[in-house]
Specification:
globular, alpha+beta, 14 strands, Aminopeptidase, seven-stranded mixed beta sheet, 10 helices, 297 residues, 2 domains
Length: 297
């Protein structure tokens, strides 16, 4: 019998034992991502026969399992049988979502055409070359480089690390300000705000990197990310004022250059089907959209 527990920051050592051995390629399997959305998506987990099972719901309140972590091909079919029974008993719409290519291939080996697979397009992750974001080189990013240069030449600014006195508190105030200015009744923005507060307060435990930009001594943007493996870093948040020309181009470039320079690729997560967010993410010309899948059997 699977007994699920609601995720909290105290569960990080348990999940780390499984996730650190899985070289994930999307943002979904970062503990920080799970923690940010733990309330919005009712993130729960169970350790079942030595395998990590994560259950959550999407933004339409449909529950599903993420792909199991720590399984072997020998025990996968038996495990899936149990998950299918749980799905049936609990009237879940999907068996799996947030599925990456490696798990998809293992399912195909067992179930072949009996696996009903949908691409979850709104949740594809945007993957960029670190070098391009850090330098803004090339014709495609010429406009971004102009925005960056305009900011540098026209504003009195200072870059500060989260560890400096008062910066974390300023970031939380700015997050609240951003939420107030952008809130149109979407409950998930409020959930995101709560998630931002929690991860900022636990930044050290989560091994996060953070940076804030002050203009005329007033905090104007902040950004948060983490290096998840030798190849990839994830940028989780980037919040700030819209009235300062070029500040987002400056923040993006500077953060990658100063904090995430050790990796080859930057994951800036999904666009959730939001047209403005999609346009902004595409304007940096990702090298790849990392696919995720919804699966029923």
């Amino acid at each position: 019998m699977m007994i699920f527990k609601k995720l909290t920051i105290k569960d990080k050592p348990i999940l780390d034992r499984y996730l650190q051995n899985y070289n994930f390629i999307t943002s979904e399997y970062s503990f920080t991502t799970l923690l940010v959305w733990r309330e919005a998506c009712d993130v729960q987990y169970a350790i079942h026969k030595g395998i990590l099972i994560i259950k959550k719901k999407d933004f339409k309140d449909n529950y599903y399992f993420m792909q199991p972590i720590g399984y072997s091909k020998k025990n996968l079919k038996e495990l899936i049988h149990e998950l299918k029974e749980y799905k049936k008993e609990n009237n879940m719409k999907y068996l799996f979502k947030d599925v990456e290519d490696s798990f998809l291939e293992d399912l195909k080996d067992i179930y072949g055409e009996d696996a009903h697979i949908e691409e979850d397009v709104d949740n594809f992750d945007y993957i960029y070359l670190k070098e391009k974001l850090a330098t803004l080189s090339g014709k495609k990013l010429h406009g971004k480089k102009n925005h960056y240069n305009y900011f540098v030449k026209n504003y009195n600014y200072e870059v500060k690390d989260f560890s400096e006195p008062g910066v974390m508190e300023d970031c939380i105030k700015l997050a609240h300000q951003w939420h107030k200015e952008n809130f149109t009744g979407d409950k998930f923005l409020t959930y995101e705000l709560k998630g931002i507060e929690e991860v900022l307060y636990n930044a050290d435990k989560l091994n996060l990197k953070g940076m804030a930009v002050y203009v005329d001594d007033i905090i104007s943007t902040f950004t948060v990310g983490e290096v998840v493996n030798k190849d990839m870093a994830i940028v989780h948040f980037e919040k700030g004022r819209k009235d300062i020309n070029g500040i987002y181009a400056f923040t993006n470039k500077t953060f990658v250059e100063k904090y995430l320079n050790e990796v080859g690729y930057i994951n800036r997560e999904q666009d959730l089907g939001i047209e403005g967010l999609r346009k902004a993410k595409r304007s940096y010309y990702p090298v790849k959209l990392e696919k995720k899948y919804c699966i029923n059997l």
